[in-house]
Amino acid sequence: MLKILSGDQVKELDSAHIQKEGISSHELMERAALSFIRWWESMVFSKALPVFVFCGAGNNGGDGFAIARLLFKGGWNVQVFRCFEEGNTLSPDAQKNLDWIPEGVPNHPWNEFDLSNEGVLIDAFLGVGLKGPIRNSAFPIIECINSFPGIKISIDLPSGLLADSPSNGPVVEADFTVTFAFPKLALLFPENAPFTGKIVLAEIGINEPIYEVFPSPYFFIQEKDILPRHRVFGQFSHKGDFGKIALLAGSKGKMGAAILSSKAALRTGSGLVTAFVPESERGIIQSAVPEVMCEFEESPDWNRFDALGVGPGLGLDKKDLLQKTLKGFTKPMILDADAITLLASNREMISLIPKNSILTPHLGELERLIGKSSDHLDRLNRVKEFCLQWQLNVLIKGAYSVISLTDGRQLFNSSGTPYMATAGAGDVLTGILTSYLGQGYSPENALICGVYHHGKAGELAGNQYRRSTIASDILEKIGETYLLLNVL
Ligand SMILES: NC(=O)C1=CN([C@@H]2O[C@H](COP(=O)(O)OP(=O)(O)OC[C@H]3O[C@@H](n4cnc5c(N)ncnc54)[C@H](OP(=O)(O)O)[C@@H]3O)[C@@H](O)[C@H]2O)[C@@H](O)CC1
Ligand SMILES: [K+]
């Protein structure tokens, strides 16, 4: 997993890398610019479009100057716009790249930019070096960039956005943010989505061991992290090895939730799935999912199951049932939906949850549980406190879902699409997570694999159906994610 460092740690990371690899800071900047160019080429923008590069006086501006040079060499019509006063001192690498701008690239002060231009604007004004509230002198520059009607691409961060804390001033509203080495924390906050546009991660060749000395609780999950966390089953494995799980889900009018979670558990490899549903509703689930068994007892011997998922479509009148279940099962379990709402209004039950269990609230359910947050950073901190206090794992569902673990680490998922914001998508996830726990995955690995596959399946469904995607489509794409990630 990619460690997400703070803006202040970036400089130290740079110097650690420069020292270890024996390259200069200027070479590292060149790598960043080349990495941007690789992405640019993959986008096949029309060469008829002129490119306007807005550059600041720091290294973010230095990236911009280097990019302008490389684009010009590649045959693009490029112009540079300086976002600093005449006579300002530039960072040494920015100055070097400014000096290297070829003669054929016009170089103007930013306020000479003609907003009626068509083309692509590259925002290399401010990056992780932005400190404190943005100065008034920067306001008109950001306003000018935002008034440009064409495509806007921010380098490393949309200018005006602080790397890892909430920003109050004006911020560039980019269509794309190409960020170097790792996504800066603030890029992953939902409130910053209008500024970041699509986030692109550009590798600059800093090897993972160099990150080890920098402490950070935040990580970014990538596709390559998934396969090694899956369990490998042998030729002689039988359905008992794949786990015997139970789902306590569904109620009159909400049997769809039980169906979706049971099917998802089966699709992710559960050997035996038993749904505990109201007896009166059994016909619905048994005809929809013949592979599922049903039981109707209120207090069965829960511990005969390897894993238990509670909550989808359960109904808010099941407080006593939830209490009995929490007392009756001693291994980590999954708690979702109505189970979380019941816990929020009956807080004395939180201490009954087996340690290391997983709660999967959406933002509304989370607010009921931990109170209102002022912003995403505040939310992350409150959830971390909750996880440490109760020794529970919490998944904050949404874009870049956050897996908050019992040891304080918080992992951001990288798969998914807005098309997954549809009824029942959470029920599918509960089924997947219960399935992995039942197959013997640790809660951490169940979460990492489950959340990633769920997001990937959503992406595949979204690519096919866009906003017509429904939870059943996500479910039916799970199999393809196994092929895509080469999970046996
Ligand atoms: N490993 C990596 O990730 C790599 C990172 N690289 C790149 O380096 C970038 C970081 O560069 P950096 O540290 O030079 O800072 P940067 O973002 O240019 O900002 C400095 C400028 O901001 C200004 N400024 C500050 N506060 C302000 C305020 N409140 N309001 C207004 N202005 C304010 C400050 O002005 P000053 O205070 O000096 O007057 C100065 O002009 C990083 O984002 C990435 O693009 C790559 O090149 C290589 C690999
Ligand atoms: K920028």
Automatic annotation (TrEMBL):
Q: Which residues form the YjeF C-terminal domain?
A: 222-485
Q: Which UniProt keywords apply?
A: ATP-binding, Isomerase, Lyase, Metal-binding, Multifunctional enzyme, NAD, NADP, Nucleotide-binding, Potassium
What catalytic activity is recorded?
(6R)-NADPHX = (6S)-NADPHX; (6S)-NADHX + ADP = AMP + phosphate + NADH + H(+); (6R)-NADHX = (6S)-NADHX; (6S)-NADPHX + ADP = AMP + phosphate + NADPH + H(+)
Q: Does the keyword Secreted apply?
A: no
- InterPro entries noted in UniProt: Carbohydrate_kinase_pred_CS, CARKD, Nnr, Ribokinase-like, YjeF_N_dom, YjeF_N_dom_sf
> Does this UniProt record's set of keywords contain NADP?
yes
> What cofactors does the UniProt entry give for this protein?
Mg(2+); K(+)
Q: What does the entry's cofactor note say about binding and number? A: Binds 1 potassium ion per subunit.
| Binding-site list for AMP | K397, G398, A399, Y400, S401, G426
User: In this protein, which residues make up the domain named YjeF N-terminal?
Assistant: 10-212
What is the superkingdom listed in this entry's lineage?
Bacteria
Instruction: Indicate which residues the UniProt annotation says bind (6S)-NADPHX.
Output: 59-63, 127-133, 156, 257, 313, 362, 427
EC number(s) on file = 4.2.1.136, 5.1.99.6
Sequence positions that bind K(+) = N60, D123, S159
Quaternary structure note: Homotetramer.
Q: Which family does it belong to?
A: Belongs to the NnrD/CARKD family. In the C-terminal section; belongs to the NnrD/CARKD family.
Function of this protein?
Catalyzes the epimerization of the S- and R-forms of NAD(P)HX, a damaged form of NAD(P)H that is a result of enzymatic or heat-dependent hydration. This is a prerequisite for the S-specific NAD(P)H-hydrate dehydratase to allow the repair of both epimers of NAD(P)HX. Catalyzes the dehydration of the S-form of NAD(P)HX at the expense of ADP, which is converted to AMP. Together with NAD(P)HX epimerase, which catalyzes the epimerization of the S- and R-forms, the enzyme allows the repair of both epimers of NAD(P)HX, a damaged form of NAD(P)H that is a result of enzymatic or heat-dependent hydration.
Record's PANTHER family?
Answer: ATP-DEPENDENT (S)-NAD(P)H-HYDRATE DEHYDRATASE, ATP-DEPENDENT (S)-NAD(P)H-HYDRATE DEHYDRATASE FAMILY MEMBER
- This one is known as Bifunctional NAD(P)H-hydrate repair enzyme
Lineage in the entry? Answer: Bacteria, Pseudomonadati, Bacteroidota, Cytophagia, Cytophagales
